[in-house]
Amino acid sequence: MKQNESPADRAFRAEVRDWLGANLSGAFAHARGLGGPGREHEAFEERLAWERHLAAAGWTCVGWPAEHGGRGATVGQQVIFHEEYALAGGPARVGHIGENLLGPTIIAFGTDAQRARFLPPIVAVRELWCQGYSEPGAGSDLAGVQTRAVLEDGRWVVDGQKVWTSLALEADWCFAVCRTEPGSSRHHGLSYLLVPMRQDGVDIRPIVQLTGTSEFNEVFFDGARTDAANIVGAPGDGWRIAMATLGFERGVATLGQQVGFRRELDGVIELARRTGAVDDPLLRDRLTRAHMGLEIMRLNAARTMAGVAAGAPGPESSISKLVWGTWHRELGELAMDVLGAAGMIADGAPYDLSDWQRLFLFSRSDTIYAGSNEIQRNIIAERVLGLPRERRGTE
Questions:
Q1: Where in the chain is the domain with CATH 1.10.540.10?
Q2: For the Acyl-CoA dehydrogenase/oxidase C-terminal domain, which residue ranges apply (predicted)?
């Protein structure tokens, strides 16, 4: 992609690279590479301070329109920013959910009052967000949501349970899909509500994962309240809004994610050389296939950027989620096979994991969160390829 960059894009790349080089130093030098999936417990306060430093210099929400606090960067420039950020070893972003999911949704579907209230704190990293989609009985099948919300005296009253809620303990707000029409089922009768997390009636319980960390949480709503105006779109339009949010989640930031994948793959290759596993023809073939898969992933992601440029990405974005989730899980498995028996031994007591062990364990979830492989295949089959719908329920 660099070969096709315009002079303006090359200048933008140089600006981003120079700024990151100058600022990921001093007090922030130790933040390089911290955080990320399976490691969100690392230096959260330091990463929050770094992100507010980014905001003060105008480097958050770079793709948002200028009138909403962004830089109005083109899709190509957004890709450049995420690539350079990953190459510089920038720490995992704590405001990712607000910046890349909720913010674009509010810009596309919110009211002027909602944009004025919610966008500036996201840009400044003054308010953090979490996503209230999955439930114990509605994970991959989001249409099965049972969390209820009833409008009483000008406020929505929310009751129900969400699960696998990333970073809920740190979040100030949650965008939650709730059933607001009694007796409705499936995609009908759902609404997209913005709910404050720091109130009576919200109980957050961390879930200890295979990695020993707790990025994911259970969230119980028991009479939690939010203003009637804190609904995005019309009542009953929640499914459409929620699907658009998932499309934004699979936008340009995934190209920066792939720089991290490249670093991990390079590390596995070096590990194979160091342990002698590279001499095994079967492992060498898998390493080659992993390299080819990453190149295919990048080309496919670049192709789907056309959907981002046109607004909310379409169902084709499910291809990207299916490809990267499967590839990353397989990379974790490959890392364990390269390690051999040594991969079974913890780095220290009681449960200190190596980076490769953490990659293997956490990447099991990559094919589930943000849309499971099963659901992505159905979306691709039905909405992209035009195949008959899968039989569901009593159909």
A1: 2-94
A2: 236-385
Tens-digit pLDDT profile for residues 320-358? 788 888 999 999 999 999 999 888 988 888 888 888 998
The residue length of the chain stands at 395
pLDDT of 1 reads 47
For CATH 1.20.140.10, the residue range(s) in the chain are 250-384
Give the separation between CA 282 and CA 25, rounded to whole angstroms: 42
pTM, two decimals, is: 0.84
Q: How far apart are CA 159 and CA 223, in angstroms?
A: 6
Give me the CATH topology for the region 129-237: Butyryl-CoA Dehydrogenase, subunit A; domain 2 (2.40.110)
For the domain covering 250-384, report its CATH number.
Answer: 1.20.140.10
Residue pLDDT, tens place only, 307-319: 555 555 566 677 8
Helix axes 281-309, 253-275, angle to 10 degrees: 170
Supply the pLDDT for residue 224.
Answer: 97
Catalytic residues: 249
Task: Classify domain 2-94 by CATH number.
Answer: 1.10.540.10
Query: What pLDDT was estimated at residue 20?
Result: 96
Which pair of tokens denotes residue 184?
A: 């409705």
Concatenated DSSP letters of 52-121: HHHHHTT-SSTTS-GGGTS----HHHHHHHHHHHHHTTPPPPTTHHIIIIIHHHHHHH--HHHHHHHHHH
